Amino acid sequence: MANTRFQKTPFHFIQYLALKVFCALFGLLPYRTAVKTGRLATGSVRFVMPKRFERSVSDIQKAFPEKSPEECREIALESWRNMGAIFAEFIKLTTFKNPDEFKKHSRIIGAEKMLNAQDKTGGIIHIGHFTNWEAFGLAGAVYGVDKAVLAQRVDNPYIDEETNRLRNIFTGRTFYSNHEDKPFFACMRWLKKKKMLGILFDQNTVSGEVWIPFMGRMAAFSPITALLSIKMQVPVFPVRVWREQDGAIVSEVMDPLYPPTEYSMDNVRQFTKQLVGYYEAWLREAPSSWLWAHNRWKREAEGNAYLASHPEERV
């Protein structure tokens, strides 16, 4: 039976038209005004989605029990505001055709590390849903990185096509993790060409998981970064993203991590745990920069039950 999840409908088209209107309006605004407007808009969405916002607050309280309820609520609010900033920055950055103008708003420290690996070994970019990960993707192309990204397909196919077009507007391509065609071998072929592949796996995965404690709670993580790195013997480049006081987005490419030389599920779990450690460190440093709106610990009870019956898989 054909998968109907991503089929186009009239309602999808109406949503797409609304998005195009918002994009056009944000495109007309000055950069900083657009970002402020986006922050205000998504900060206000908490009144429309109170249960989801309260879940963000609850998750923050569990992750940071030392923080007061007021601090946790402020972290959640700033995280929700950041979603609007991401939208506005993404739209505005795609309009900059001059590299020097683009780099005033989004720049990369250590881009030469990826460029040196490109066409020699290739590599995997380890990044998460922090600050503005999409800005890093656009900046990578501006800096000359030949990359692809592994992303989840949006349910609305019109919006998915538009997002993908903008994401790769300066060159690049996308592999879909939730497509009917499994992306693993497409990613392997890409890495075999000694190219760079960006993967974010800090969100919940629904299958093929590795269970790892994350901020004190069991969470399901995709092992795809570790699997690809070990199978293809390519380095992993952690990338930390933050926003300067003047609003400029800075992405730092850290020193590469080299995978175990032998494939085993234990090595996959241990390497995945090492990569998750970067997420935890970045989150503790800047809690409000992460996408708390996502239901990250949706399968926590399942993870606890699984590890209780499989103690040998504890990492």
Please trace the helix and strand order, writing H or E for each element: HHHHHEHEHEHEHEEEHEEHH
Strand order of the largest sheet: 1-9-8-2-5-3-4
- The shape, in one word, is globular
* Helical residue percent band: 40-55%
Present the secondary structure layout.
Blueprint: H1 10-28, H2 31-44, H3 50-63, H4 69-93, H5 99-103, E1 106-109, H6 111-117, E2 123-126, H7 133-142, E3 147-151, H8 157-167, E4 173-176, H9 184-192, E5 196-199, E6 210-214, E7 217-221, H10 224-232, E8 236-243, E9 249-253, H11 265-285, H12 300-309
Parallel strand pairs: 1-9, 2-5, 2-8, 3-4, 3-5
Antiparallel strand pairs: 6-7, 8-9
Describe the protein.
The protein is an alpha/beta fold. The chain has one domain (10-313). It has helices spanning 10-28, 31-44, 50-63, 69-93, 99-103, 111-117, 133-142, 157-167, 184-192, 224-232, 265-285, 300-309; strands spanning 106-109, 123-126, 147-151, 173-176, 196-199, 210-214, 217-221, 236-243, 249-253. A seven-stranded mixed sheet has the order 1-9-8-2-5-3-4, sandwiched between helices. A two-stranded antiparallel ribbon has the order 6-7. A hairpin with a 2-residue loop joins strand 6 and strand 7 (217-221). Helix 4 (69-93) runs parallel beside helix 7. The mean pLDDT is 94.
Keywords:
alpha/beta; 7-stranded mixed sheet; globular; 315 residues; 12 helices; two-stranded antiparallel sheet
